[in-house]
Amino acid sequence: MSQNFSRERRIVKTDDFSSVFRLRPKNRTGHFTLYARGNTLQHARLGLVVAKRLAQRAVTRNMIKRVCREVFRKKALDSMDYIVRLSASVVTRRNPATGVQLKRLVKKELEQLFAGETQNRES
């Protein structure tokens, strides 16, 4: 379990994103979709896609990315490329963006997303 998120643990190239997106999603929650593809490295890598149309405020987008990186660092994952994509707006009229409440919701869903991945690995 690594506690860092250096550049080598990130997916940054467009080609790498495209190769992972060609595959079907591995897991979904209410707001997020997880894509995964094996890699030849000794560690897992993470890519994030948080569209502006789904989270209009930069503060919200950055919080989502920060929480996702935190959850990723704390999980023991296989050597794969993972992409987490925000697939539905987390801020709605019924669920306004209050900092603590929104962060708790995002963290819970991301932990479910990666927990499903670790359960698949153990089976």
From TrEMBL:
Catalyzed reaction equations: Endonucleolytic cleavage of RNA, removing 5'-extranucleotides from tRNA precursor
GO cellular component: ribonuclease P complex
Assigned EC number: 3.1.26.5
UniProt entry tagged with the keyword Isomerase: no
Alphabetized SUPFAM superfamilies for the sequence: Ribosomal protein S5 domain 2-like
A GO MF term: tRNA binding
Gene3D superfamilies found in the cross-reference section: 3.30.230.10
InterPro entries, alphabetized: Ribosomal_Su5_D2-typ_SF, Ribsml_uS5_D2-typ_fold_subgr, RNase_P
Coiled-coil portions: none
Superkingdom, taxonomy of origin: Bacteria
Gene Ontology BP term (one): tRNA 5'-leader removal
HAMAP family, alphabetized: RNase_P
Function: RNaseP catalyzes the removal of the 5'-leader sequence from pre-tRNA to produce the mature 5'-terminus. It can also cleave other RNA substrates such as 4.5S RNA. The protein component plays an auxiliary but essential role in vivo by binding to the 5'-leader sequence and broadening the substrate specificity of the ribozyme.
Family the UniProt entry places it in: Belongs to the RnpA family.
Known partners and oligomeric status: Consists of a catalytic RNA component (M1 or rnpB) and a protein subunit.
Name of the protein this chain belongs to: Ribonuclease P protein component
Organism: Oxalobacter vibrioformis
Gene name linked to the record: rnpA
